Amino acid sequence: MGISHDDVEPITEQTHDNSWSANLEKPHHGEDRELVLEQAIDAVEHTVSGNHVNLVTHGDHGHPETYLFDALEAAFETIEYDYIEQCGCGGHVTRVYV
Q1: Looking at the DSSP assignment, which residues form a beta bridge with residue 56?
Q2: Alpha helices in 1-98 (DSSP H)
Q3: For residues 22 and 11, is the Cβ–Cβ distance under 8 A?
Q4: Which of 26, 43, 51, 85 qualifies as a cystine partner to 22, CB 3.0-4.6 A?
């Protein structure tokens, strides 16, 4: 049985008026793609316009173009993002411009 999203610590509780990185590659993220999507959207919503957030996603889900990009486009009217790189640990970095 998967973990309840209510039992997982939020990715952030503050609004970031700077560029920052959201760590979405903890073990519970690897087990739950929906949690990754939920927290990625939350990270973008908590980033002040004019800044960017690096979404560092778990490698177990593969390249973010297969699941993350469509979710971002569905959640936000206008969105700009770039795939940056795959980390040495297997995760992926997507930079979202707010």
Answers
A1: 23, 93
A2: 27-31, 33-45, 68-75
A3: yes
A4: 43
Handedness of CA 36, 55, 20, 81 (dihedral sign): negative
Question: For the whole model, what pTM was predicted?
Answer: 0.90
Q: How far apart are CA 22 and CA 53, in angstroms?
A: 7
Each residue's pLDDT tens digit, 17-64: 999 999 999 999 999 999 999 999 999 999 999 999 999 999 999 999
Tell me which amino acid residue 63 is. Answer: H
Measured N-to-C along each axis, helices 68-75 and 33-45 cross at an angle, to the nearest 10 degrees, of 40
Looking only at the bridges linking them, the beta strands covering 92-97 and 52-57 are antiparallel
